Amino acid sequence: MQNGGYDSVPARTSLVDTVLKSRNPQIRKDRTTPYPSRTAAINSSASMFSGIRASDFEKFLVFNVDLRTWHEDATYNKALKFDLGKHTTADVIRELDVVENVDFRLGWKKATSFPSEIHVELLSLKAIPDPYVGFNEHKVQWIGDAEWLYQCTFPFDLSIPHQYAKLIFEGLDTICDVYLNNSKILATDNVFRTYAYEIPQENLLRSNNTLLLHFKSAKALRSLKKPSMEGSAPVQPTLEMLVECMTQMGLDVHVRNLVEFQPDGAFTVTLKLDVALSGAWDASGNALLVQLANAEQSPGKFQRNSVVMWTNLENDGIQLWWPVGYGEQTLYRVEVSLVNKNDEVIDSASRRVGFRTVKLIQEPLSEPDQYGLGTTFLFEINNVRMFMGGSNWIPADNFLTQISAERYRKWLTLLRDGNQNMVRIWGGGMYEPDVFYDICDELGILVWQDFQFACGVYPAHEEFVANVRQEAIDNVTRLRHHPSIVCYCGNNEDYQLVLQWGDVAQLPARILYEDVLPDIVATLTDPPVPYHRGSPYGGKGWDTSDPTIGDVHQWNIWGGKELQYQEYDRMGGRFISEFGIPSMPSMRTVNYWMAGADESQFYPQSQLVAQHTKAGSFERRFAIVMNENFRLTTDFETHVFSTQLMQSEATSGVLVWQLNDCWPVVSWAIADYFLRPKPVYYTIKRELAPVTVGIFRNVVKNRENDRPRQFYEFGAIQTLYATLSIWATNSTLTVRKAKLELRFFDLLSPGWSHSETQDVNLLPNQSTELLEIECPGPSRNNVVRGEPLSVSSANVVVSARLLDAETGVVLARHSDWPEPYRYLQTPDPGLITSLTQGERSNETTLTMTVSKPAKCVFFSVEDAGPEVQWSDNALDLVPGDEQVVLVGGLNGRKVKVAYFGRQKAQVI
């Protein structure tokens, strides 16, 4: 078969020409920045959207064309119409040429990358500034109002009868007309779909077949349509035909595997393959060869459209696939080849699979907890019920073609190394490319996959439903062989939006979430992968905030009731699939977007900081939380550190919003756009370790008030004393014997300390309450009752360690400091550090001790260059407990350190 020179990305790139012609390109200074909803997709670009989870996301990109020819007697769809419109390619170019008032015209330019998107092309031509720097975002808004053309030519061998070309378009974003040799063959309206067409030979030329793509402004077309329904809810008016996408196609091989466990723990695997072939095929002369690589199975020949089955693959020959932390990620490759009578391979396909079971357990509780009765919401993998700790995922860049496989691997490795085992693909982003899920399979990261609906009221007329149905079929078919995918979810916050606005009588898209999508998941996955109607969703009259059922998005800290973050322990539920608090990124990232800015912009509330903060009401909310917990400052670096410390204190586990960023910005991300982890990343890493220990301080007062229970009060409300509750969590599947060590230090009395120890047994796969005591403190002499010093524990730092009962190795640490932090007088901790070069040239050992307690000791590097990998960071240190951190990639650069009380970093 031929491929017209499109056998690799470099070859394709060299053949692609681009028309960069614009229509109505004037810069709209009053235009608001678009944000993503159903429009984020692979091979596309957009303006910045971090922090917002709904609206527009306009992108312009080229195509993914796969030219295939078949040497056997092929058939094709003769009903395919090549005159879908009256326009020819010449008509399109002529119309754009005569548009008046065009003040931006580059003419034909060579595309520099493949896949391509117009923002990246313009950046490579230096036709636009970097939109991530300064206020440049506003200088590129005109791109979404323009219309763009892409063109390429390709040859075709007409000498072999009955050949045809197969064109596969991926990620055409969004309103695009496709012309082949002056005939309009396709009009697209859904970037989340794959469009594949077989072009008969009589419609092709021996050379210079011209393919032209005309991308229209979705914004302009949207303004021509009317809203699909009435009401004051934020209905997105023209989503009926303005949806977007990405997938990959090939020889369709579906691998079905059923793992059945026996009472004794043994299991059997039943493996079935459904193989679908296109084109005419002589069953008497051709055959399918199927092989399960990595397993002791012999290849076999099978008839066309038959079901290939192996049964009773015993567990001594087949290994299960396990999530990270529970076992190995064993993967097998199923290889299928189509061969002719001479044993020559005509075509082939393969799928990499893993054998595992998955269930979403929603069982009634027999006893109430602090929230009442209700049902469970937990995942069971291979008969083991597991705690899910992870993050939400948004597109890793606004310019999606810029995300390499290496960058995907760095992000997902960062998540895995942070002791997280689940990632949720947010419904306002995109279906990720295959490489994303391949890496999740390899790393053992479980995937919760939202269908791409978010924060909107979508229509449900026949045309739209049919479009979405095909989108779902495309993507579930593409993704169903991945063992990492354990949940498909209908939407993000669509049920919640209806309840929030209250005046929408019904949710039209219920037919999608409750009928169409679950039916597709059940039909195309075997055994079925769990399906959840929405996130959040409980099921009781669409209730999305009931903590006793379903999953919950907990935004009553940052948003909602705007409670203090110390109240998170009361804001739980069966499964928290979103929560978090934003912070500034690292100073290196801030300096990137501040490049060239006037010194007058270097303060926390400046216009340029606001430009890079898309979260609504961030100034007021930051001011409230910072004022309650920290001493206010106008120093920029101190402010950055304090917001990061606040985030690390307020965010610990479940599915955090969010892992990553799509541009340099102030956001909820636990690592910024440049993959620089914030302190919260390391806090989460420690809290999701296999064994953890925790402390809750309850400050008892003379009467209740609306302040956090952890706050010491010295005003109208008086503090009496404080109690401590200590617990531990063991997520392993075996009992752990350990020693609990408690140590107490007073910030104002350096000569006082106290310690206690206790032997403990940590039960498997659960939390264990260990101890409840009154918090001790130094005795105070000559102090009048009611004065601050009369409460002996008001300045006491509590340190807990769990040590292995046999080896004495530290299993877990936790420190609890008195709050609010703004009251504290923090002494110089006497931090001593040493750096020792390891045996491997790229690894350094960093050792640290203190003579007084230190909070959030955070290390960074002084100079630019590749990111440094820290095995731990943002540490709470106490005297007598030396801590060691492994540092990778330091390469002789100087190390800086900051901590609470000295927030401006200094070289060690």
Give a description of the structure:
Pathway: Glycan metabolism; N-glycan degradation. One of its GO terms (cellular component) is extracellular region. Residues 272-356 form the Glycoside hydrolase family 2 immunoglobulin-like beta-sandwich domain. With 908 residues, the chain is an alpha+beta fold. The chain has five domains: 9-244, Jelly Rolls (Sandwich), CATH 2.60.120; 252-353, Immunoglobulin-like, CATH 2.60.40.10; 388-581 and 652-657, Alpha-Beta Barrel (TIM Barrel), CATH 3.20.20.80; 691-823, Sandwich (Immunoglobulin-like), CATH 2.60.40.10; 832-907, Immunoglobulins (Immunoglobulin-like). A hairpin with a 5-residue loop joins strand 34 (796-804) and strand 35. The radius of gyration is 30 Å and the shape is globular.
Total strands: the figure is 43
User: Could you state the oligomeric state of the chains shown?
Assistant: single chain
Rounded mean pLDDT score: 79
- Report the β-strand fraction as a percent range: 25-35%
Radius of gyration: 30 Å
Global morphology: globular
